[in-house]
Write a structure and sequence with these properties.
By secondary structure, the protein is an alpha/beta fold. It has 2 domains: 15-55 and 300-405, Alpha-Beta Complex (Aspartate Aminotransferase, domain 1); 58-296, Aspartate Aminotransferase, domain 2, CATH 3.40.640.10. The chain contains 13 helices and 14 strands. It has helices spanning 23-26, 28-36, 58-69, 82-94, 108-120, 135-143, 163-169, 192-204, 263-279, 291-296, 300-320, 347-358, 385-405, and strands at residues 42-43, 100-107, 126-131, 147-154, 160-161, 174-180, 208-212, 236-242, 254-260, 326-328, 336-341, 360-361, 363-364, 375-380. The strands form 3 sheets. It has an 8-stranded mixed β-sheet with strand order 2-9-8-7-6-3-4-5, with helices on both faces. A 4-stranded antiparallel β-sheet has the order 10-11-14-13. Strands 1-12 form a two-stranded parallel sheet. β10 and β11 form a beta hairpin. α5 (108-120) crosses α6 (135-143), α5 packs across α9 and α11 runs parallel beside α13.
Length: 406
């Protein structure tokens, strides 16, 4: 008997994937096609310091190497190795975060965020996310069939979160507020008064605060970072950090979460994150050996890194803000700038045309969220001074040519 069946069509993907977008990587598809065609490309789209020549501190590499030679190559405990967890807790307490309920290590901060969101929200719930903000949150909430409800950062106020906008959007289905500080994509650093107001809203409405502080040591011009978990001991705060940005090892995929607040409120949620952690076995094992040396060892590379980033930022700001039709708020931290496009209808079209004509790869602001009616693009400040200069001058020539065609 012939059991062969006529094909009835492709394997249909799940509906939950329909609205998952990640603009930072999405632009690479066209960029790679242009590169293969022989076009010179300027990649200012992904915040990965290593391809631009930045190297991690040697003592981190040595610690991981020793762990591998000691055959710490099997599964780790689901929450992470105790030596690393202890170092994270000690560092958190030193920075003023008390009432620690649970700490765990993930395969990058992204996995910690995904585990926490998965343990928290049900379909139909909503989470307040910054706009502009890191697109992982909106992509993840789309997958979880929950609403990513954007609150605005105020460009005219240096991209500070708009507190009244946050307050009026909280309702009975709101489960959490996300704050990214320093912010990706704007490079802004929130003031203490702004952070306190958000923490007070979290405590008042029994919400969980996702305090994404992955860039907390990359600060310019005397800017001060204040851990949100240090501001109020009765607020439920998940502080998110990791090795990737401050210590220049995004490929290690080592991040962590520190859950603080009142244990009687947080214990059920903490146990839910442990359940998810056990289901995925463990985070990368030998790389966890770098956590204590990172937090307690020589950190002189951070001052040197910030010095390099300030030089790149100042060059980019000087060049971009001289272009008729572009303005950019000066970043105070991280390694991004979020430039405003004036008299442009679609930042997505503008970025594609810029890439095709000049080879400059930037990410449209719509991929991060932005106030309706505005258009932006994000560029990364990690390339060399010569590349930033050439890329920004190409942007200026492109804008001038576009205006003359109109």
């Amino acid at each position: 008997m012939d059991h062969a069946k006529k094909s009835s069509g492709p394997i249909r993907p799940a509906e939950r994937v329909r609205n998952v977008r990640y603009a930072v990587r999405d632009v690479v598809v066209m960029a790679d096609r242009l590169r293969k065609q022989g076009k010179k490309m300027f990649y200012l789209n992904i915040g990965d310091p290593n391809p631009f020549g930045f190297r991690p501190p040697a003592h981190l590499i040595e610690a991981v190497h020793r762990a591998m030679l000691d055959n710490r190559n099997g599964y780790a405990p689901s929450d992470g190795i105790e030596d690393a967890l202890d170092a994270i807790r000690v560092d958190s307490k030193r920075r003023g975060i008390g009432n620690i309920v649970h700490t765990w290590i993930g395969n990058g901060c992204s996995e910690v965020i995904e585990m926490a969101m998965s343990a928290l929200v049900n379909p139909g719930d909503n989470v307040l996310v910054p706009s502009p903000g890191y697109p992982l949150y909106t992509a993840l909430l789309a997958k979880l069939e929950a609403e990513a409800r954007p609150y605005q950062l105020d460009e005219a106020a240096g991209w500070q979160p708009d507190i009244p906008d946050i307050a009026r959007q909280i309702d009975g289905r709101t489960r959490a507020i996300v704050v990214i500080n320093p912010n990706n994509p704007t490079g802004s650093v929130a003031s203490e008064s702004t952070l306190r107001a958000i923490v007070d809203l979290v405590a008042e409405h029994d919400l969980l605060l996702f305090a994404d502080e992955i860039y907390d040591r990359l600060l310019f011009d005397g800017a001060k970072h204040i851990p949100m978990g240090s501001l109020r001991q009765d607020a439920s705060v998940l502080t998110l950090c990791g090795l990737s940005k401050n210590w220049l090892v995004p490929g290690f995929r080592i991040g962590w979460g520190v859950l603080s607040g009142l244990a009687e409120k947080l214990d059920p949620f903490a146990e839910a994150t442990r359940q998810l952690g056990r289901a995925r076995l463990s985070a990368n094992h030998p790389e966890q050996a770098a956590i204590r040396p990172a937090l307690e060892g020589d950190q002189s590379h951070i001052a040197a890194l910030n010095h390099e980033l300030v030089q790149r930022r100042d060059l980019a700001m000087g060049l971009l803000n001289r272009i008729d039709g572009i303005s950019c708020v000066k970043p105070e931290g991280a390694f991004y700038a979020f430039a405003r496009l004036h008299d442009v209808q679609s930042d997505g079209d503008w970025c594609r045309e810029l890439m095709q004509e000049t080879g400059v790869v930037v990410v449209p602001g719509s991929g991060f969220g932005q106030r309706p009616g505005t258009q932006h693009f994000r560029l990364v400040l990690l390339p060399s001074l010569s590349i930033i200069e050439e890329a920004c001058k190409a942007i200026g020539s492109f804008v001038a040519a576009s205006r003359s065609r109109r």
